[in-house]
Amino acid sequence: MSKTTLKDLLIPPEDANGVWFRQRGRIFEKILNYIFGNEEMEPRTSMRPTGEEIDGSFSFGNSFYLLEAKWHANPIPASSLYAFKGKVDGKLIGTIGVFFSMSDYSKDAVDALINGKDLNIILFGHNDLLGIDNGIISMREAMKIKLRYAVEYGQPFYPLDSIVKTRSLSEGNKQTTQMKKSWHILVEGEADVRTISLLLERFKLSREYSIIAAGGHRSIVSLAKSLITDGTEHVAAIITPVGDSEVQAELSEQLNSLDVEKVSLNCSIEDWLGEFVSTDYFNATIMLTNRESKMARRYARNADINKLLANTPSFESFLEKLQASE
Question: Which class would CATH give 174-324?
Answer without folding.
Answer: alpha beta
